Amino acid sequence: MQATSKPHGPAKKTKTQAAEDASSTGADDRYRAPALDKGLDILELLAQQPQGLTRAEIVKEMDRSASEIYRMLERLVARQYVTRSVAGDRYALSLKLFALANMHPPLNRLINQALPVMDAFARQAEQSCHLGVYDRGNVLITSQINSPRGWSFSLHRGARVGLMDTASGHVLLAFSDAANALRMRAEHTAVDGEVPITEKKLQATLEGIRTLGYLERDSQQSFGVVDISFPILGPDHTALAALTCPYIRRIDTHKGPDLRQARELLSQAARTLSLTQGLAG
């Protein structure tokens, strides 16, 4: 007796499977792109494997059919996102993603967007301001805008200041996640003239910054300067940078913005440069 063949096609889902699919589909799944998701899944998988994987290993890890993985791998190889070994049996990430990312480095984008905002703050507050980012154990000053009035305290672009005793450093620590904060402290090396701080005082300072959302205090480096520092936050609400104003009060007859007004203007500038601007995208 000859067996009757059944047409090939996707298996009909049970009521339970259909219900589960429906319940798992939310607003974020409205515009799904399965092929794109599949390609991104392969890239993310290979990113965790410096030595690469064979096609069979990729199929096993992703729990998909060999044919769909083969087609996607061939497209990624053709577009040079993935390389195939000489023997043809192992796949690994190429440097294309690295090259694309560095065509518009995040720090350069941040600086380019920050400069006009910082310039507007300096003109309105009649104070200088600078942008600091974490770099190899301390804080690197990436941008500096002087007060248009000529009277200001400023730091040179490219200067490195302490992570553990400056307003910028404390704000960056306060708005880092626990793992990054530990790494930053482990990499820290004292700069010339750094003011020591006890662990108890440091933790109290960081907690105070998180509670207020900013830091304001007398400078620990210069007399007559009040440091005001706000975080520039990324999408995950951790600090990309610290925007700091070393406020100096004039005692002549000129009536410029006071400390409270300068703080409000700096807060507005930091908000402008934070989440809604997508700087970490």
TrEMBL record:
The keyword DNA-binding applies. GO terms for biological process: negative regulation of DNA-templated transcription. GO terms for molecular function: DNA binding; DNA-binding transcription factor activity. SMART domains: HTH_ICLR (SM00346). It holds the Pfam family IclR_C. Residues 33-95 form the HTH iclR-type domain. The keyword Transcription applies. InterPro entries: GAF-like_dom_sf, HTH_MetabolicPath_Reg, Tscrpt_reg_IclR_C, Tscrpt_reg_IclR_N, WH-like_DNA-bd_sf, WH_DNA-bd_sf. Residues 96-279 form the IclR-ED domain. It comes from the Bacteria. Residues 1-32 are annotated as: Disordered. This is IclR family transcriptional regulator.
